[in-house]
Amino acid sequence: MDAIECITTRRSIRKFKPEAVPQELLKKVITAAQKSPSYKNSQPWEAVIVSGKKKDDLTQILAGLLESDAKPEPDIPEPPVWPAAIAQRIDDTFKTKGGKMGIDLNDPVIKKKAKLANFRFYGAPHGIFVFQDRSLAEWSMFDAGLFCQNIMLAAWASGLGTVPQAFLIDYSPAIRNFLGIPATKKLVLGLSIGYPELDHPANSFITGRENTDAILRFVE
Ligand SMILES: Cc1cc2nc3c(=O)[nH]c(=O)nc-3n(C[C@H](O)[C@H](O)[C@H](O)COP(=O)(O)O)c2cc1C
Questions:
Q1: Residue among 12, 13, 129, 150 whose CB has most ligand 1 atoms within 8 A, to mutate
Q2: What is the pLDDT along the chain (220 residues), one digit of tens a residue?
Q3: Which of 15, 153, 163, 206 to mutate to test the pocket of ligand 1 (most atoms within 8 A of CB)?
Q4: Which helix (H) or strand (E) holds 15?
Q5: What is the spatial distance between Cα 6 and Cα 62, in angstroms, rounded to a whole number?
Q6: How far is the CA of 89 from the centre of ligand 1 (A)?
Q7: Domain boundaries, the chain
Q8: 57 to 28, 60, 97, 142, 202: CA distances (angstroms)
Q9: Contact present, 155 and 162 (Cβ < 8 Å)
Q10: Which of 42, 160, 174, 183 is most deeply buried (CB count within 10 A of its CB)?
């Protein structure tokens, strides 16, 4: 698989086979992602991979917080508003996806179910939590994003599926506490990783993209 094929065929995976991924393969993916460029080669990223009973215990904690309507405290807050054109894009994706699934993705009951599925790592055998020092500036968040993207691409090229999940850091203090991550660090993203069930309907929705001409201009 060449780079273009890897980038264009990767998609978010929300149904996984239960089999664990060998630790060497998970490490290979992370080692590849460490080759991501970063501001002054600062490499402002760290990761924890949680599996097995520990992952199940974490799911229990997060599901309990959700069930008790605990207020989310993500280390990176959810954007309160979006510019109109972007809000429209999000709405279009939700409507198309919800339409295919026969549900309203904005319905609060559906939203809660969706969060629970996130907290269950969509059935994946492993969860990856990416974090970085809280004192770092904006460029380091950019770098962490590159690291996350390369985790996803290295995984895809290795026959693994992933899904990046902002929801997975909803209860950041509880997660940091459970994983032994000091409060001086902030959680950037959670990702589920495992062998994808490619033919499952949960993985059949392919998201669209804006026409390139709408986001690109050549100036010459
Ligand atoms: C920063 C970030 C946060 C995301 N959070 C979630 C999430 O909490 N749950 C989820 O199911 N998908 C989440 N996604 C996945 C997006 O919905 C997905 O990337 C987007 O719809 C495009 O689809 P694709 O990944 O299949 O190309 C997130 C993606 C990113 C980059």
A1: 12
A2: 999 999 999 999 999 999 999 999 999 999 999 999 999 999 999 999 999 999 999 999 999 999 999 999 999 999 999 999 999 999 999 888 888 888 888 888 888 999 999 999 999 999 999 999 999 999 999 999 999 999 999 999 999 999 999 999 999 999 999 999 999 999 999 999 999 999 999 998 899 999 999 999 999 9
A3: 163
A4: none
A5: 32
A6: 13
A7: 12-78+119-206
A8: 26, 5, 31, 31, 24
A9: yes
A10: 160
Length of the chain, in residues:
220
Chain CA centroid to CA 217, Å: 30
With H, G, I as helix, E, B as strand and everything else as coil, classify residue 134: coil
CATH superfamily of 12-78+119-206: NADH Oxidase (3.40.109.10)
How far, in Å, is the centroid of ligand 1 from the Cα of 79? 14
Q: Residue 187's beta-bridge partner residues?
A: 131
Bridge partner list, 127: 50, 192
**Cα 44 from chain centre:** 18
Residue nearest to atom 30 of ligand 1 (CA): 164
Ligand 1, pocket residues at CB < 6 Å? 11-12, 93, 118, 163-167, 189, 207
Closest-lying ligand 1 atom to the alpha carbon of residue 205: 26
